[in-house]
Specification:
Number of helices: 3
Strand content: 35-45%
Radius of gyration: 17 Å
Helix content: 25-40%
Structural class: alpha+beta
CATH topology: Alpha-Beta Plaits
Shape: globular
Number of domains: 1
Strand order of the largest sheet: 2-3-1-4
Distance between the termini: 38 Å
CATH class: Alpha Beta
CATH architecture: 2-Layer Sandwich
Number of strands: 6
Oligomer: single chain
Order of helices and strands: EHEEHHEEE
């Protein structure tokens, strides 16, 4: 997994935190299928995801609008996967939706580790 490349703010982040039940090996294929499907949706910008051995997962998907997020939430296959998750895979989960107002990044050149770059974004103030 790499850090998602996102456009200049504003955009939206959907943070999905979950705790899986033990021995749910059939979760991974469905998770991969949902990721592939999400990537095909209008407004999808990128994703970052990590999993721990104890079953805690954190996935952050990035979207261009609340409308795109709503369409993904209502997608039939996503709804079916969410229901299966409630019945079979998750001990608990929480979804948070956030508007990204500012981002900045740092990177080190893999070929020249002494070379770095820093890119702040400006905060957009509304009047």
């Amino acid at each position: 997994m790499t850090i998602a490349t996102t456009p200049k703010p504003p955009y939206y982040a959907v943070i999905f935190s979950s705790q899986r039940m033990e021995n749910k090996n059939d979760y991974d294929p469905m998770s991969k299928k949902m990721l592939q499907l999400a990537q095909q949706q209008d407004g999808f910008l990128g994703v970052e995801s990590v999993s721990s051995k104890d079953g805690f997962d954190l996935t952050i998907s990035y979207w261009d609008s609340l409308k795109s997020i709503q369409h993904w939430k209502e997608h039939a296959a996503h709804q079916a996967a969410k229901q299966k998750g409630k019945e079979n895979w998750f001990r608990s989960f929480k979804t948070r939706i956030c508007k990204v107002e500012q981002d900045y990044d740092f990177s080190r050149s893999p070929l020249h580790p002494e070379t770095t770059s820093y890119h702040p974004s400006e905060i957009q103030h509304s009047v």
